[in-house]
Amino acid sequence: MAWFGKAVKAATPAAAEGIVPAALPLPLDASAFQRHFDALLATAEKDGGIESHLAALSAKVAAFSGLRERARAAPPALDELEPALALVFTARRHLHPALEAIDAEAGRLVRELWFGATSPERRLQQFVDAMPGAGSTDRAGIKAAAKLRRAAWDFAAELLHYGDPLRYPLMARWVWDQGTQSGALRELVRGSDSIRELPFGNEPGLFEGARCWLAEQLASRGIYRDEELWVDLVQAQAYLGYFRSMTEGSLGADFGRGVPPQEQLKRLLGIDAAPGERSDRVKKRQPAIHAEVH
């Protein structure tokens, strides 16, 4: 296959400038990687093959990087952000009303996320902290605000990564979430089922360290192109294996009952529809309907 061959460069993604890969507190397991890698190839083979998945991720990168380049000149308007939001599975169902509420501030925050002078971690947190609802004091309001912040983190993480995938690793919560102690990285640690709390943080260096390790595993199997996209695919496969086992294959509203694994993989990565084709998937605020009084 075209994506196998003799390695011709170092077994790391192109330099992620500004993010130093951290030494992982626990080693990742090559046998676990092989298991998820094999499952990925088998899953992809049922739906056009691995090349179709790589092509779909490349199209997503083109859409996000195009938005990023336009944002150099001016903060994007909300209607410019909607096609990107439609490609982020974990955020598109919750985030649009919040972005609409902060109006032009949303575009400024996105521009700052990509081009700000502070660290990537600080820029991510700044985007999350700008979401409305932080002052809620009732239980329902606090819960809604927390859900919104999680969606904002995932959207910001994907904007960073897919806007410039060689510079930034994917730092979405499904890759690793310290708070819930879940994510793809847990599935790559040997014996993680018996470890209550993994000593992994949420700092960018951790994600970059894991990405470099995964790229080394890919290179050892003769994969030397599109490593950053391969890493995303392997991580998605690892996470879905965990998620299916936790829900006994019944994934409810997030993925739909009876949805085959290959479709779940694409949904998680936001590549189940081409960029620009399904903006209707973004959940928007419903206008209030008032009864006419006579």
What does this protein structure show overall?
This protein has one domain (30-281). By secondary structure, the chain is an all-alpha fold. Residues 1-11 and 286-294 have low confidence and may be disordered. It contains 11 helices and no strands. 51% of the residues lie in helices and 0% in strands. The protein has helices at 30-45, 50-71, 78-85, 96-102, 104-115, 120-129, 139-163, 204-220, 227-247, 252-255, 261-269. It is globular.
Protein traits:
0% strand, disordered N terminus, 294 residues, mainly alpha, disordered C terminus
What is shown here, in short?
With 294 residues, the protein is mainly alpha-helical. 51% of the residues lie in helices and 0% in strands. The protein has one domain.
- Tell how many strands the DSSP assignment holds: 0
Domains, number:
1
Q: Element order, helices and strands?
A: HHHHHHHHHHH
Largest sheet: none
**Low-confidence region ranges:** 1-11, 286-294
The whole-number mean of residue pLDDT values reads 86
Q: How far is the first residue's CA from the last residue's CA?
A: 72 Å
Number of helices: 11
| Helix content percent band | 40-55%
Give the overall shape, derived from the CA principal axes: globular
Structural class per helix/strand content? Answer: mainly alpha
Rg: 19 Å
Beta-strand level of the residues, as a percent range?
A: under 5%
